[in-house]
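seq as requested:
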Amino acid sequence: MSQNVGMSSCCLSGKVNEGKPAGREDQIGGLSTYVSEPKNGSKEKSIVFIADIFGYKFSNLRLLADEYAKAGFYCYVPDFHQGDSIDISFLQNVEPNLKEQETLSMADKAKNAALIPATLGPWLVKHREGVTQPLIDGFVNTVRMIPGTGKIGAIGFCWGGRYTILQAHGKQKDTTGSDVGGVDAAYACHPSLVAIPGDFDPVTKPLSLAVGTKDSLLDNKSVGQIQDIMAKKTNVPHEIRIYEDQVHGFALRSDWSSDKDKKAMDESAQQGIDWFSKYLS
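struct tokens:
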């Protein structure tokens, strides 16, 4: 039986980092998309970014795509939420960073606890797998047909991390029997809402995972189960890197004022760059 690891207030912690994204917005496959190109403009190694609940406009995500572009990847950050991402104010007002949380009164914490499921519940239903997966599959198909495109990778965070794992299942058949979706390599950072073993048994493509030891949505027991499943896939390249004292969202929303947290964020970015450099070449 599959075990679903859910979503909680921990999904909403973190910090908006400073910086101005260097890419551009475009329309690709019917979706608004942030595009960040490598200096040589090559699409030989393309990466599709799958956002967390805060969507494709979140500056942290765009800045990270810029870093991957600097490393030689052609990066696409599509709006898979179709204009319906959770507003970033929810990150700041409902679930402030961990230091600020310590100053909240019990009444404030109770208010937050009630507001989070009231907001997230309907959103998750609206953006359920039956709606989201076809959008991602279709976008991957579109990228595959862009002239000059070589291998394709997918990287996802939190909510988007699970869909990255699903892309690592490889191409699937739609109702007409046509191949849809599927990438050549995938990297999931602190995925949420994953089904264990259901989401991992079908993995056939190289898969890298980054998780924190203080991730309330993917605890040590769940990580151990995933390790056991992937260990049996001796013909599928995989890795699971565990980051000490890091909470859910650390790879995208770490507080840069903390040397330890910024180091973990930087190392997780390098993890993905190294993974894709190897398996998209």
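Residues 268 and 276 are 13 Å apart (CA to CA).
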